[in-house]
């Protein structure tokens, strides 16, 4: 049973996610009150355009942020407006006014999370952000609470639905990158300007948040090594497939020393036997490896109004409980980490190289690998018209040696083009 008066919710933003949250709260209000003892009621919502018809009482909507962030009839603030400003300022105002804040904004948490957590801690109220990473998939709470005592080895995820959709179309239908992107845009999975998704910026912001939570250290999006999928070709995917791998855009966060973490986003070859290889279309999944717990995988809808609203609702109920109890949950305490440079990565590699089809070229190419101490595991040669395409898989090597190899190959006359370099996941 719900005890006391309703917990009044103010929304900063009422678009795709905010609108879904209003619908969910209104639809589930009785059931949530019954199950959790918290009755939620949306009292205010900030929007830019007051003339849009959004349903709900007209008096709920305002275009002035302070009429939500510090309003007397708002107990908890939900930020779903996006971007850093004015969201940051409004959240700081709300926290100072003693209101817990729930947000879905990864860009904001990745960029200024440390400042906001400090403000929340000073005010003694919650700042919760489950919805900011992997939409509807519970990830932040499992990392912060269920796995609080776990020594985590690695967290590796498909955290961008747009790129996973594009790679799925390229894999299953042999589509080119351009055609698959066009289809994703037509379906509304990709933005008209897809840069944030396809070049890995969105995944890098999420990787920074996951690294901070999983390893308790401050990681900024600019600390994340980042490559997107725009250079991946249908031919790379077909070769990977023949070799028993799926190509996925992965966000990888791993402990590499007592205070060192490696954080990177790049396309990778994932063995088809690995659970992440079976994650198709716009689904997301996060694979967690811990010393005691072993392997875990969380899978689901990483975006979309309702899945994201589901994560916000869970946070809202938590914040409302803590508010009633007169306090806050455990805030993340973030230490300093050394970010391990990508040059120190040890991985197997896949690389495709187009060369002149004449005698001696193969041994010259192989020689460059040898010069830099990169050992070749397998090589496939395909005839093109006057050229040959050489596809190499290496044994585990240091990234800096692999990059030096590519540099050396570029200097060879017979090398016309170096295609994708893909890191290969898993043991040899
Ligand atoms: P959206 O549909 O564009 O909605 C944004 C809302 O905020 C709109 O109601 C807009 O008003 C309002 N708004 C934005 N800037 C404003 C300003 N300066 N002043 C007043 N109102 C402003 O965005 P969304 O897709 O719901 O995403 C919201 C947040 O959730 C973002 O941080 C996003 O990264 C995050 N998120 C989204 C998803 C998803 O699947 N969409 C998933 C996970 C996380 P108008 O309605 O008048 O334009």
List low-confidence stretches.
none
The amount of beta strand, in percent, is 25-35%
Based on secondary structure, the structural category is alpha/beta
Mean pLDDT metric: 94
Largest sheet: 12 strands, mixed
What general form does the structure show? elongated
The CA-CA distance between the termini, in Å, is: 56 Å
**Percent helix range:** 25-40%
The quaternary organization reads as single chain
- Provide the list of bound ligands, each named once: NADP nicotinamide-adenine-dinucleotide phosphate
* Overall strand count: 18
Radius of gyration: 24 Å
Q: Total helix count?
A: 13
SSE topology sketch:
Blueprint (H helix, E strand, L loop, with lengths): L6 E6 L3 H21 L3 E7 L14 E2 L3 H4 L6 E4 L7 H10 L4 E3 L2 H18 L3 E2 L11 H7 L5 E7 L2 H13 L3 H10 L8 H4 L2 H15 L9 E2 L7 H9 L2 E11 L4 E12 L11 E8 L3 E8 L3 H20 L13 E2 L6 E11 L4 H11 L4 E8 L3 E8 L2 E2 H12 L4 E10 L4
Parallel strand pairs: 1-2, 1-4, 2-3, 4-5, 5-6, 8-10, 10-13, 10-18
Antiparallel strand pairs: 7-9, 7-11, 9-10, 11-12, 14-16, 14-17, 14-18, 15-16
NADP nicotinamide-adenine-dinucleotide phosphate binds next to helix 1.
């Amino acid at each position: 049973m719900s005890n006391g008066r309703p917990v009044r919710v103010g929304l900063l933003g009422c678009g795709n996610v905010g609108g879904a949250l209003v619908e969910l709260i209104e639809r589930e209000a009785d059931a949530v009150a019954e199950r959790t003892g918290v009755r939620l009621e949306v009292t205010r919502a900030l929007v830019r355009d007051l003339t849009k018809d959004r349903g709900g009482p007209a008096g709920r909507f305002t275009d002035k942020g302070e009429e939500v962030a510090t309003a007397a009839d708002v107990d908890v603030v939900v930020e779903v407006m996006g971007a850093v400003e004015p969201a940051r300022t409004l959240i700081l105002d709300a926290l100072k006014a003693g209101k817990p804040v729930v947000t879905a904004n990864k860009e904001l948490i990745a960029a200024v999370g440390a400042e906001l957590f400090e403000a929340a801690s000073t005010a003694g109220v919650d700042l919760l952000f489950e919805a900011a990473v992997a939409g509807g998939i519970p990830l932040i709470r499992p990392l912060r609470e269920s796995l609080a005592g776990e020594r985590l080895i690695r967290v590796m995820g498909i955290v961008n639905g747009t790129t996973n959709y594009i790679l799925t179309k390229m894999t299953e239908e042999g589509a080119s990158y351009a055609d698959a992107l066009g289809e994703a845009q037509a379906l509304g999975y990709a933005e008209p300007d897809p840069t944030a998704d396809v070049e890995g910026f969105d995944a890098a912001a999420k990787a920074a948040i996951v690294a901070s939570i999983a390893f308790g250290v401050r990681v900024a999006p600019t600390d994340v090594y980042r490559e997107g999928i725009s250079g991946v070709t249908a031919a790379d995917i077909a070769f990977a497939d023949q070799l028993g791998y799926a190509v996925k855009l992965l966000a990888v966060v791993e402990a590499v020393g007592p205070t060192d973490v490696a954080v990177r986003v790049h396309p990778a070859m994932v063995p088809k036997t690995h659970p992440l290889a079976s994650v198709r279309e716009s689904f997301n999944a996060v694979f967690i490896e811990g010393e005691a717990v072993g392997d875990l995988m969380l899978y689901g809808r990483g975006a979309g109004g309702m899945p994201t609203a589901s994560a916000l609702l869970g946070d809202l109920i938590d914040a409302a409980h803590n508010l009633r109890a007169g306090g806050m949950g455990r805030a993340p305490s973030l230490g300093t980490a050394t970010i391990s440079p990508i040059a120190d990565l040890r991985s197997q590699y896949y690389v495709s190289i187009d060369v002149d089809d004449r005698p001696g070229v193969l041994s010259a190419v192989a020689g460059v690998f040898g010069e830099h101490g990169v050992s070749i595991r397998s090589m496939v040669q395909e005839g093109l018209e006057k050229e040959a395409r050489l596809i190499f898989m290496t044994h585990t090597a240091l990234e800096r040696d692999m990059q030096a190899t590519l540099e050396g190959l570029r200097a060879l006359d017979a090398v016309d083009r170096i295609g994708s370099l893909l890191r290969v996941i898993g043991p040899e």
